[in-house]
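The instructor's notes for this session suggest beginning with a concrete chain rather than abstract definitions. Hand out the sequence below and ask the class to guess, before any prediction is shown, which regions might be ordered.
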Amino acid sequence: MKEIKVGVIGAGSIGKVHLQAYQAVPDVKVVAVTDIVEERAKQVSEMFGIPRYYTDYREMLEKEELTAVSICTPNYLHSPMTVDALNAGVNVLCEKPMAINAKEAQKMVDTAKATKKILMIALCWRFSDEARTIKEFIRQGYLGNIYYAKVGILRVSGIPGMGSWFTNKDKSGGGPLIDLAPHFLDLAMWFMDHPKPVSVKGYTYAKFGPFDKRRGGWGIPEPGGKFDVEDLGCAIVGLENGATIFVEMSWASNIEKDTSYCTLLGDKGGAEMMPPKVFTEMAGKYVEIIPKVEKVNTYVEEIKHFVKCIQEGTEPMPRGEEGVIDMQIIDAIYESARTGREVRF
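After discussion, reveal the predicted structure:
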Protein backbone atom coordinates (compact mmCIF):
# COMPACT_ATOMS: atom_id res chain seq x y z
CA MET A 1 0.00 0.00 0.00
CA LYS A 2 1.23 3.49 -0.84
CA GLU A 3 3.00 5.20 2.06
CA ILE A 4 1.18 8.10 3.71
CA LYS A 5 3.57 11.04 4.13
CA VAL A 6 2.65 13.22 7.10
CA GLY A 7 3.69 16.58 8.49
CA VAL A 8 2.90 17.68 12.04
CA ILE A 9 2.34 21.38 12.69
CA GLY A 10 3.08 22.21 16.31
CA ALA A 11 5.74 20.37 18.31
CA GLY A 12 4.32 20.97 21.78
CA SER A 13 2.65 18.48 24.11
CA ILE A 14 -0.23 17.42 21.86
CA GLY A 15 2.02 17.43 18.80
CA LYS A 16 4.23 14.84 20.48
CA VAL A 17 1.15 12.74 21.25
CA HIS A 18 0.26 12.74 17.54
CA LEU A 19 3.83 11.85 16.60
CA GLN A 20 3.85 8.87 18.96
CA ALA A 21 0.53 7.70 17.53
CA TYR A 22 1.67 7.99 13.90
CA GLN A 23 4.70 5.83 14.71
CA ALA A 24 2.32 3.06 15.81
CA VAL A 25 0.38 3.03 12.52
CA PRO A 26 1.57 1.01 9.49
CA ASP A 27 2.11 2.61 6.06
CA VAL A 28 2.75 6.04 7.60
CA LYS A 29 5.91 8.12 7.66
CA VAL A 30 6.21 11.49 9.35
CA VAL A 31 8.57 13.38 7.05
CA ALA A 32 8.51 16.84 8.63
CA VAL A 33 7.57 18.77 11.74
CA THR A 34 6.97 22.50 12.16
CA ASP A 35 7.15 24.77 15.17
CA ILE A 36 7.69 28.52 15.44
CA VAL A 37 10.34 27.81 18.11
CA GLU A 38 13.24 26.43 16.06
CA GLU A 39 14.94 24.78 19.03
CA ARG A 40 11.77 22.85 19.83
CA ALA A 41 11.23 21.83 16.21
CA LYS A 42 14.82 20.58 15.97
CA GLN A 43 14.64 18.75 19.28
CA VAL A 44 11.40 16.98 18.40
CA SER A 45 12.62 16.04 14.92
CA GLU A 46 15.68 14.40 16.50
CA MET A 47 13.60 12.73 19.23
CA PHE A 48 11.25 11.08 16.72
CA GLY A 49 13.71 10.55 13.86
CA ILE A 50 11.93 12.99 11.55
CA PRO A 51 14.02 13.90 8.47
CA ARG A 52 13.26 17.64 8.30
CA TYR A 53 11.94 20.43 10.48
CA TYR A 54 10.62 23.92 9.71
CA THR A 55 9.66 27.07 11.57
CA ASP A 56 7.07 28.12 8.95
CA TYR A 57 4.30 25.66 8.12
CA ARG A 58 3.76 27.32 4.73
CA GLU A 59 7.31 26.45 3.76
CA MET A 60 6.68 22.85 4.78
CA LEU A 61 3.50 22.72 2.69
CA GLU A 62 5.39 24.12 -0.28
CA LYS A 63 8.52 21.96 -0.09
CA GLU A 64 7.18 18.60 1.13
CA GLU A 65 5.02 16.17 -0.87
CA LEU A 66 2.58 15.58 1.96
CA THR A 67 -0.48 13.37 2.03
CA ALA A 68 -1.70 14.70 5.36
CA VAL A 69 -0.97 17.00 8.28
CA SER A 70 -1.91 17.06 11.94
CA ILE A 71 -2.56 20.56 13.23
CA CYS A 72 -1.55 20.74 16.91
CA THR A 73 -1.26 24.49 17.49
CA PRO A 74 -3.08 27.10 19.62
CA ASN A 75 -6.79 27.34 18.85
CA TYR A 76 -6.73 30.60 16.89
CA LEU A 77 -4.41 29.02 14.30
CA HIS A 78 -6.57 25.96 13.61
CA SER A 79 -8.79 27.50 10.95
CA PRO A 80 -6.18 29.44 8.90
CA MET A 81 -3.69 26.56 8.98
CA THR A 82 -6.36 24.04 8.01
CA VAL A 83 -7.54 26.20 5.11
CA ASP A 84 -3.96 26.64 3.87
CA ALA A 85 -3.23 22.91 4.10
CA LEU A 86 -6.44 21.91 2.32
CA ASN A 87 -5.76 24.44 -0.43
CA ALA A 88 -2.30 22.90 -0.80
CA GLY A 89 -3.99 19.56 -1.55
CA VAL A 90 -3.28 18.01 1.86
CA ASN A 91 -5.72 16.07 4.07
CA VAL A 92 -6.10 17.48 7.60
CA LEU A 93 -6.51 16.08 11.10
CA CYS A 94 -7.13 19.15 13.27
CA GLU A 95 -6.97 19.06 17.05
CA LYS A 96 -9.97 20.15 19.07
CA PRO A 97 -11.47 22.66 19.42
CA MET A 98 -12.12 22.87 15.70
CA ALA A 99 -11.66 26.66 15.73
CA ILE A 100 -12.23 29.65 18.03
CA ASN A 101 -15.80 30.07 16.76
CA ALA A 102 -18.32 28.54 14.36
CA LYS A 103 -17.61 31.07 11.60
CA GLU A 104 -13.96 30.04 11.43
CA ALA A 105 -14.99 26.37 11.62
CA GLN A 106 -17.35 26.78 8.67
CA LYS A 107 -14.47 28.15 6.56
CA MET A 108 -12.66 24.87 7.16
CA VAL A 109 -15.63 22.77 6.06
CA ASP A 110 -16.23 24.90 2.97
CA THR A 111 -12.58 24.59 1.94
CA ALA A 112 -12.58 20.82 2.45
CA LYS A 113 -15.61 20.52 0.18
CA ALA A 114 -14.07 22.77 -2.45
CA THR A 115 -10.74 20.91 -2.46
CA LYS A 116 -12.31 17.44 -2.05
CA LYS A 117 -9.87 16.67 0.76
CA ILE A 118 -10.52 14.99 4.10
CA LEU A 119 -11.05 17.17 7.16
CA MET A 120 -11.25 15.26 10.44
CA ILE A 121 -11.54 16.79 13.90
CA ALA A 122 -9.43 15.11 16.60
CA LEU A 123 -12.05 14.12 19.17
CA CYS A 124 -10.33 11.01 20.45
CA TRP A 125 -12.95 9.97 23.01
CA ARG A 126 -15.11 8.59 20.18
CA PHE A 127 -12.42 5.95 19.69
CA SER A 128 -12.43 4.71 23.28
CA ASP A 129 -13.89 1.25 23.82
CA GLU A 130 -16.14 2.80 26.46
CA ALA A 131 -17.77 5.15 23.93
CA ARG A 132 -17.97 2.51 21.20
CA THR A 133 -19.59 0.05 23.62
CA ILE A 134 -22.26 2.51 24.76
CA LYS A 135 -22.92 3.45 21.13
CA GLU A 136 -23.52 -0.21 20.28
CA PHE A 137 -25.97 -0.60 23.18
CA ILE A 138 -27.80 2.45 21.80
CA ARG A 139 -27.75 1.06 18.26
CA GLN A 140 -29.27 -2.19 19.46
CA GLY A 141 -32.13 -0.33 21.14
CA TYR A 142 -31.34 -0.89 24.82
CA LEU A 143 -31.80 2.80 25.69
CA GLY A 144 -34.70 3.54 23.35
CA ASN A 145 -35.26 7.25 22.75
CA ILE A 146 -32.62 9.30 24.59
CA TYR A 147 -34.32 12.39 26.00
CA TYR A 148 -31.65 13.68 28.41
CA ALA A 149 -27.86 13.72 28.49
CA LYS A 150 -25.63 15.14 31.20
CA VAL A 151 -21.90 15.61 30.52
CA GLY A 152 -19.11 17.20 32.50
CA ILE A 153 -15.40 17.43 33.13
CA LEU A 154 -14.62 19.07 36.48
CA ARG A 155 -11.13 19.70 37.82
CA VAL A 156 -9.90 20.80 41.23
CA SER A 157 -6.72 22.49 39.95
CA GLY A 158 -6.30 22.29 36.20
CA ILE A 159 -5.91 25.72 34.61
CA PRO A 160 -3.55 25.10 31.67
CA GLY A 161 -0.74 27.48 30.74
CA MET A 162 -1.72 30.29 33.11
CA GLY A 163 -1.14 33.59 31.31
CA SER A 164 -0.41 31.90 27.97
CA TRP A 165 -2.63 31.58 24.89
CA PHE A 166 -4.80 29.12 26.86
CA THR A 167 -6.12 31.92 29.07
CA ASN A 168 -6.17 34.65 26.40
CA LYS A 169 -9.63 34.75 24.80
CA ASP A 170 -8.37 36.22 21.52
CA LYS A 171 -6.14 33.18 21.02
CA SER A 172 -8.09 30.42 22.77
CA GLY A 173 -11.69 31.45 22.14
CA GLY A 174 -12.50 30.84 25.81
CA GLY A 175 -11.78 28.67 28.82
CA PRO A 176 -12.90 25.14 29.72
CA LEU A 177 -16.06 25.38 27.63
CA ILE A 178 -14.03 25.55 24.42
CA ASP A 179 -11.11 23.50 25.75
CA LEU A 180 -12.96 20.55 27.31
CA ALA A 181 -16.58 20.62 26.12
CA PRO A 182 -15.84 19.63 22.50
CA HIS A 183 -15.01 16.09 23.69
CA PHE A 184 -18.11 15.28 25.72
CA LEU A 185 -20.54 17.56 23.90
CA ASP A 186 -19.50 15.69 20.76
CA LEU A 187 -20.14 12.36 22.51
CA ALA A 188 -23.60 13.41 23.67
CA MET A 189 -24.56 14.61 20.20
CA TRP A 190 -23.13 11.43 18.62
CA PHE A 191 -24.98 9.15 21.03
CA MET A 192 -28.19 11.05 20.22
CA ASP A 193 -27.61 10.94 16.42
CA HIS A 194 -26.94 14.68 16.12
CA PRO A 195 -30.34 16.33 16.60
CA LYS A 196 -30.39 20.01 15.72
CA PRO A 197 -29.90 22.46 18.63
CA VAL A 198 -32.69 25.01 19.04
CA SER A 199 -31.88 26.86 22.27
CA VAL A 200 -29.07 27.46 24.75
CA LYS A 201 -28.97 29.04 28.21
CA GLY A 202 -25.43 29.37 29.49
CA TYR A 203 -23.46 30.69 32.46
CA THR A 204 -19.74 31.32 32.99
CA TYR A 205 -17.62 32.07 36.07
CA ALA A 206 -14.02 33.09 36.73
CA LYS A 207 -13.29 32.58 40.42
CA PHE A 208 -9.70 31.31 40.47
CA GLY A 209 -7.80 32.24 37.29
CA PRO A 210 -7.99 36.02 37.81
CA PHE A 211 -6.16 35.50 41.12
CA ASP A 212 -3.49 33.20 39.64
CA LYS A 213 -4.87 30.20 41.53
CA ARG A 214 -5.33 26.53 40.61
CA ARG A 215 -2.70 26.07 37.93
CA GLY A 216 -2.66 22.73 36.15
CA GLY A 217 0.18 20.70 34.67
CA TRP A 218 -0.66 21.20 30.99
CA GLY A 219 0.74 24.04 28.89
CA ILE A 220 3.54 26.50 29.58
CA PRO A 221 2.63 29.34 32.01
CA GLU A 222 3.56 32.91 31.09
CA PRO A 223 3.92 35.07 34.21
CA GLY A 224 2.00 38.33 33.93
CA GLY A 225 -0.04 37.11 30.97
CA LYS A 226 -3.77 37.58 30.47
CA PHE A 227 -6.59 35.65 32.06
CA ASP A 228 -9.80 36.86 30.45
CA VAL A 229 -11.69 33.56 30.09
CA GLU A 230 -13.95 31.52 32.36
CA ASP A 231 -12.70 28.80 34.68
CA LEU A 232 -16.17 27.21 34.88
CA GLY A 233 -19.04 27.18 32.43
CA CYS A 234 -22.36 25.37 32.26
CA ALA A 235 -25.40 25.31 30.00
CA ILE A 236 -28.70 23.70 29.13
CA VAL A 237 -28.97 22.88 25.42
CA GLY A 238 -32.45 22.31 23.96
CA LEU A 239 -32.70 20.09 20.89
CA GLU A 240 -35.19 19.96 18.03
CA ASN A 241 -36.46 16.51 19.02
CA GLY A 242 -37.36 17.73 22.52
CA ALA A 243 -34.27 16.25 24.19
CA THR A 244 -31.92 18.20 26.46
CA ILE A 245 -28.18 18.21 27.12
CA PHE A 246 -26.76 19.60 30.35
CA VAL A 247 -23.08 20.61 30.08
CA GLU A 248 -20.68 21.66 32.84
CA MET A 249 -16.94 22.14 32.40
CA SER A 250 -14.36 23.53 34.81
CA TRP A 251 -10.62 23.96 35.07
CA ALA A 252 -10.88 24.78 38.80
CA SER A 253 -13.51 23.97 41.41
CA ASN A 254 -13.87 23.42 45.15
CA ILE A 255 -14.73 19.73 44.82
CA GLU A 256 -13.35 16.51 46.31
CA LYS A 257 -11.49 15.31 43.22
CA ASP A 258 -11.31 15.60 39.44
CA THR A 259 -14.29 13.94 37.80
CA SER A 260 -15.62 13.26 34.31
CA TYR A 261 -19.00 11.85 33.39
CA CYS A 262 -21.37 11.18 30.52
CA THR A 263 -24.87 10.13 31.57
CA LEU A 264 -27.66 9.22 29.17
CA LEU A 265 -31.35 8.76 30.00
CA GLY A 266 -33.61 6.96 27.54
CA ASP A 267 -37.21 5.76 27.73
CA LYS A 268 -36.08 2.09 27.68
CA GLY A 269 -32.80 2.37 29.57
CA GLY A 270 -30.02 4.61 30.76
CA ALA A 271 -26.23 4.54 30.61
CA GLU A 272 -23.07 5.82 32.23
CA MET A 273 -19.89 5.90 30.19
CA MET A 274 -17.17 6.26 32.84
CA PRO A 275 -17.05 3.39 33.67
CA PRO A 276 -19.61 2.00 31.21
CA LYS A 277 -22.87 0.75 32.69
CA VAL A 278 -26.33 0.26 31.23
CA PHE A 279 -29.53 0.32 33.30
CA THR A 280 -32.72 -1.26 31.97
CA GLU A 281 -35.50 -3.74 32.71
CA MET A 282 -35.18 -7.47 32.06
CA ALA A 283 -37.48 -10.33 33.12
CA GLY A 284 -39.55 -7.85 35.08
CA LYS A 285 -36.58 -6.59 37.06
CA TYR A 286 -34.51 -3.41 36.95
CA VAL A 287 -30.96 -4.50 36.14
CA GLU A 288 -27.48 -3.06 35.82
CA ILE A 289 -25.33 -4.29 32.93
CA ILE A 290 -21.57 -3.85 33.29
CA PRO A 291 -19.87 -4.57 29.95
CA LYS A 292 -16.21 -5.56 29.83
CA VAL A 293 -14.21 -3.02 27.86
CA GLU A 294 -10.65 -2.87 26.60
CA LYS A 295 -8.22 -0.09 27.39
CA VAL A 296 -7.04 1.30 24.06
CA ASN A 297 -4.81 4.19 23.04
CA THR A 298 -7.50 6.53 21.72
CA TYR A 299 -4.96 8.68 19.87
CA VAL A 300 -3.61 5.66 17.99
CA GLU A 301 -7.15 4.50 17.16
CA GLU A 302 -8.05 8.01 16.01
CA ILE A 303 -5.04 8.23 13.69
CA LYS A 304 -5.61 4.70 12.36
CA HIS A 305 -9.09 5.85 11.37
CA PHE A 306 -7.75 9.03 9.74
CA VAL A 307 -5.20 7.05 7.73
CA LYS A 308 -7.81 4.48 6.68
CA CYS A 309 -10.12 7.25 5.45
CA ILE A 310 -7.28 8.63 3.32
CA GLN A 311 -6.42 5.20 1.93
CA GLU A 312 -10.02 4.25 1.16
CA GLY A 313 -11.42 7.69 0.31
CA THR A 314 -14.12 7.39 2.97
CA GLU A 315 -15.71 10.00 5.20
CA PRO A 316 -14.05 10.51 8.59
CA MET A 317 -15.58 10.38 12.04
CA PRO A 318 -16.22 12.94 13.29
CA ARG A 319 -16.99 14.99 10.22
CA GLY A 320 -16.23 18.68 9.97
CA GLU A 321 -19.94 19.47 9.71
CA GLU A 322 -20.50 17.90 13.13
CA GLY A 323 -17.69 19.99 14.54
CA VAL A 324 -19.36 23.16 13.22
CA ILE A 325 -22.58 22.33 15.09
CA ASP A 326 -20.61 21.77 18.30
CA MET A 327 -18.93 25.15 17.79
CA GLN A 328 -22.32 26.82 17.20
CA ILE A 329 -23.49 25.47 20.56
CA ILE A 330 -20.34 26.68 22.33
CA ASP A 331 -20.67 30.11 20.68
CA ALA A 332 -24.27 30.26 21.90
CA ILE A 333 -23.26 29.34 25.47
CA TYR A 334 -20.81 32.24 25.55
CA GLU A 335 -23.36 34.61 24.00
CA SER A 336 -26.03 33.56 26.50
CA ALA A 337 -23.61 33.99 29.41
CA ARG A 338 -22.63 37.44 28.13
CA THR A 339 -26.19 38.72 27.65
CA GLY A 340 -27.98 36.79 30.39
CA ARG A 341 -30.55 35.66 27.83
CA GLU A 342 -31.42 32.39 26.15
CA VAL A 343 -30.06 32.07 22.62
CA ARG A 344 -32.39 30.64 20.00
CA PHE A 345 -31.10 29.03 16.81
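Then share the key points. The CA atoms of residues 261 and 274 lie 6 Å apart. The radius of gyration is 20 Å.
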